[in-house]
Design brief:
Layout lengths: L15 H17 L23 E7 L4 E3 L2 E2 L5 H7 L7 E7 L5 H11 L5 E6 L1
Parallel strand pairs: 1-4, 4-5
Antiparallel strand pairs: 1-2, 2-3
Amino acid sequence: MAVKLASARRGRLSMTSLIDVIFLLLLFFMLTSTFSKFAEVELMNAGSGSGRNDKQMLFVSLAEDSLMLNGQAVDMSRIADLLETQPHDGSGHLVLINIDDSASSQRLVDLLTSLRVVEGLQIMMLS
């Protein structure tokens, strides 16, 4: 007796489930991603000085693991308060920031963000 085997037929693939999976993945990544507004940080490089500056100069040295104000170690969270307590003649302060090679750019942004709250403060980056 001869047995007739049925040839395997390929069925059509339904794209509906694939589209649903892609839509769910797109929705998942859109909802889990963070949308943040990027802020602008003003920087001014120190150049050759020709004029006289009447502001009191303060020196900040920034490294990856340390922060110093006029040679004294300070905490990042207290530097704005320390700058406000520094004596000045009413024209404000000029802060010179020396950045060590080990300091990250995020640490610099954190420092500039904390200094932003101080009134009458001018910041110069030393290169």
